[in-house]
């Protein structure tokens, strides 16, 4: 008898009924077996489940099963006004909320036709917090990746340094992870007094730490042997598979939406786009992906320095500056379809909007998530490898399941 | 950014059934093509040296509701070498919606089309692995359809809370 209280009734075949195995154990050859990896396993970075067809220790095929963290983002977005969707956007990529907010806010501003009219200070603050969050996200990616491979120390170091960023963002927005700081047409608040100076201090503090990180992790012989020539993603497969972000750049293409699209104030900022060079093995291997992330942290620090200079110089804080001045009272875009994209730490985050012109609720808001697409090439690059290398590849993709499953 | 002449000419040449219609309201500008022509147009735009749309960024399903009686699928294409954007839209009937798959051209279409199928029930013919992707296999209905109402119980757990 069904009951109204939430109670899970156990059946032995529950798992296979809801997510059936793709391979049938009875049809396997005698040397083959199916290994189920996850969904509860630290090396799968959240609730990712992999069905692995093995021959001894060799991986023959991988079937990712996703959806364990599906929270109906798109359905929720269809029932809420544009500005109230932002907290849900935070929860997509929950380690880089500022970047996702920035992409979303930009999209709605483009729908409303107010893009590019925002005060320069707002834009610089947005870029600054987004780059801070990009560094924090890369810290998690590199730290947990090191831990997957067996390097424990860098994880602690990076978590310690990430804490500085989280405290700064908490100071600005009031929350450590899910900020709701970037609003459509502006910001929640201006930066707190002294933020720019503390940001400068952080830059001075973190630079030598990155040198340490390079020595202890990237140049580490064990790390190099575990990652070089492993999980090589050729460029043609990367593009055809829709891969974006550090993963695409590690395969050798200098493609960064901050440069290509030049949104917000990025055209005014000076930074490089690092690409994988195959220093330790082949271009597009796991080592390159990690190395590109480390180099991107250096570039983000360069951006931060320029933002600090602008925010204390040309666009410095004034008494009458209101970051909410451009926030629209009523968000009612014209009927149109719009696709907007921005570079978040994992790649291209896109939003497809359909506005019906009659309400302040999106008729359709689709999130094109980069982790989802990046993960979809995993089966392609993990055929014929050892299972230990499979773990190395998953970590190097840097998936956040919140964004994969939405 | 208007749909350039060359893209329009290419699309017109590839359309055997119905000529493409330009949607000026969309951003990036969209071409509305018939379902029967989609595969040919996509192949042409992907292979042609003038456009070379090598990246399929996003596949979106849209349900216009029972009153309109249509569903749509929007494809956002991007050309890395030429920095071109294009949206392709296909309008489908609401029941028995079917489209040819684009997995043969872009591998990324695999999971994205599975998601559209999962959320809208639009079938992609020729897709190598047409299973649900985000929802459980034994879930009833396609949640993003406008007329969707969820089942009462799933595994003896009341769905409405």
UniProtKB/TrEMBL annotation, chain A:
Question: Which InterPro entries does the record cross-reference, listed alphabetically?
Answer: NADH_Q_OxRdtase_suD (IPR001135), NDH1_su_D/H (IPR022885), NiFe-Hase_large (IPR029014)
The record's keywords, sorted A to Z, are: Cell membrane, Membrane, NAD, Oxidoreductase, Quinone, Translocase, Transmembrane, Transmembrane helix, Transport
The catalytic activity of this protein is classed by the Enzyme Commission as 7.1.1.-
Q: Which residues form the NADH-quinone oxidoreductase subunit D domain?
A: 148-406
Annotated Gene3D superfamilies: Cytochrome-c3 Hydrogenase, chain B (1.10.645.10)
TM helices/strands, residue ranges = 135-158
Its UniProt entry gives the catalysed reaction(s) as: a quinone + NADH + 5 H(+)(in) = a quinol + NAD(+) + 4 H(+)(out)
Pfam families the UniProt entry points to:
Complex1_49kDa
GO MF term set? oxidoreductase activity
Where in the cell is the protein located? Cell membrane
Q: What class of enzyme is it?
A: translocase
**In what way does this protein cross or attach to the membrane?**
Peripheral membrane protein
Q: What does this protein do?
A: NDH-1 shuttles electrons from NADH, via FMN and iron-sulfur (Fe-S) centers, to quinones in the respiratory chain. The immediate electron acceptor for the enzyme in this species is believed to be a menaquinone. Couples the redox reaction to proton translocation (for every two electrons transferred, four hydrogen ions are translocated across the cytoplasmic membrane), and thus conserves the redox energy in a proton gradient.
Q: Which PANTHER family match?
A: NADH DEHYDROGENASE [UBIQUINONE] IRON-SULFUR PROTEIN 2, MITOCHONDRIAL, NADH-UBIQUINONE OXIDOREDUCTASE 49 KDA SUBUNIT
Q: How does it assemble?
A: NDH-1 is composed of 14 different subunits. Subunits NuoB, C, D, E, F, and G constitute the peripheral sector of the complex.
Q: Which family is annotated?
A: Belongs to the complex I 49 kDa subunit family.
Which protein, by its recorded name, is this? NADH-quinone oxidoreductase subunit D
Q: What is the lineage of its organism?
A: Bacteria, Pseudomonadati, Bacteroidota, Cytophagia, Cytophagales
UniProtKB/TrEMBL annotation, chain B:
Classify the main location.
membrane
Role noted for this protein: NDH-1 shuttles electrons from NADH, via FMN and iron-sulfur (Fe-S) centers, to quinones in the respiratory chain. The immediate electron acceptor for the enzyme in this species is believed to be a menaquinone. Couples the redox reaction to proton translocation (for every two electrons transferred, four hydrogen ions are translocated across the cytoplasmic membrane), and thus conserves the redox energy in a proton gradient.
**What is the protein name given in its UniProt record?**
NADH-quinone oxidoreductase subunit C
Q: Which reaction does it catalyse?
A: a quinone + NADH + 5 H(+)(in) = a quinol + NAD(+) + 4 H(+)(out)
User: According to its record, how does it sit in the membrane?
Assistant: Peripheral membrane protein
Q: Where is the NADH:ubiquinone oxidoreductase 30kDa subunit domain?
A: 32-153
Where would one find the signal peptide in this protein?
none
EC number of this enzyme: 7.1.1.-
Which keywords appear in this protein's UniProt record, sorted alphabetically? Answer: Cell membrane, Membrane, NAD, Quinone, Translocase, Transport
Instruction: Name the gene for this chain.
Output: nuoC
Q: Name one Pfam family in it.
A: Complex1_30kDa
Q: Output the HAMAP family linked to this UniProt entry.
A: NDH1_NuoC
């Amino acid at each position: 008898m069904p009951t109204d209280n939430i109670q899970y009734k156990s059946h032995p075949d529950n798992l296979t009924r809801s997510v059936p195995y793709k391979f049938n154990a009875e049809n396997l050859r005698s040397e083959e077996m199916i290994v189920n990896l996850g969904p509860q396993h630290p090396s799968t970075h959240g609730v990712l489940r992999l069905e692995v067809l093995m021959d001894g220790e060799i991986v023959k095929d991988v079937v990712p099963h996703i959806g364990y963290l599906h929270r109906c983002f798109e359905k929720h977005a269809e029932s809420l006004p544009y500005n109230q969707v932002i907290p849900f956007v935070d929860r997509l990529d929950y380690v880089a909320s500022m970047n996702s907010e920035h992409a979303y806010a930009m999209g709605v501003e483009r729908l409303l036709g107010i893009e590019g009219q925002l005060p320069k200070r707002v834009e610089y603050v947005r870029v600054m917090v987004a780059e801070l969050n990009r560094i924090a996200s890369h810290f998690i990616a590199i730290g947990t990746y090191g831990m997957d491979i067996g390097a424990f120390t860098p994880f602690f170091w990076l978590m310690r340094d990430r804490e500085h960023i989280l405290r700064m963002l908490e100071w600005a927005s009031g929350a450590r992870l899910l900020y709701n700081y970037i609003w459509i047409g502006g910001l929640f608040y201006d930066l707190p007094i002294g933020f720019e100076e503390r940001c400068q201090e952080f830059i001075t503090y973190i630079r030598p730490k990155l040198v340490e990180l390079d020595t202890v992790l990237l140049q580490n012989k064990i790390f190099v042997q575990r990652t070089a020539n492993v999980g090589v993603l050729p460029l043609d497969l990367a593009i055809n598979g829709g891969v974006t972000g550090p993963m695409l750049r590690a395969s050798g293409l200098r493609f960064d939406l901050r440069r290509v699209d030049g949104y917000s104030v990025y055209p005014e900022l000076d930074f490089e786009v690092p690409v994988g060079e195959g220093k330790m093995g082949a271009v597009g291997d796991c080592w390159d992906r990690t190395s590109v992330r480390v180099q991107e942290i250096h570039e983000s620090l360069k951006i931060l320095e320029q933002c600090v200079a602008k925010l204390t110089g040309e666009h410095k804080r004034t008494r009458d500056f209101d970051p909410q001045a451009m926030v629209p009272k009523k968000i009612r875009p014209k009927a149109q379809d719009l696709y907007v994209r921005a570079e978040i730490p994992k790649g291209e985050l896109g939003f497809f909007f359909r506005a019906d012109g009659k309400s302040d609720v999106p008729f359709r808001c689709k999130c094109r998530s980069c982790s989802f697409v990046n993960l979809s090439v995993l089966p392609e690059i993990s055929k014929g490898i050892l299972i230990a290398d499979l773990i190395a590849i998953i970590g190097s993709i840097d998936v956040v399941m919140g964004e994969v499953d939405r | 950014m208007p749909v350039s002449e060359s893209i329009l000419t290419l699309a017109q040449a590839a359309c055997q059934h119905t000529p493409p219609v330009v949607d000026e309201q969309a951003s990036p500008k969209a071409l509305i093509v018939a379902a029967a022509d989609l595969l040919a147009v996509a192949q042409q735009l992907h292979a042609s040296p003038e456009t070379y749309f090598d990246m399929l960024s996003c596949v979106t399903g849209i349900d216009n509701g029972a009153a309109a009686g249509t569903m749509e699928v929007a494809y956002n294409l991007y050309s890395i070498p030429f920095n071109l954007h294009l949206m392709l839209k296909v309008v489908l009937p609401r029941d028995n919606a079917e489209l040819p798959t684009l997995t043969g051209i872009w591998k990324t279409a695999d999971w994205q089309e599975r998601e559209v199928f999962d959320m809208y029930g639009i079938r992609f013919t020729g897709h190598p692995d047409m299973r649900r992707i985000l929802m459980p296999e034994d879930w009833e209905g396609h949640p993003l359809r406008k007329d969707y109402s969820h089942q009462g119980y799933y595994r003896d757990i009341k769905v409405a809370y």
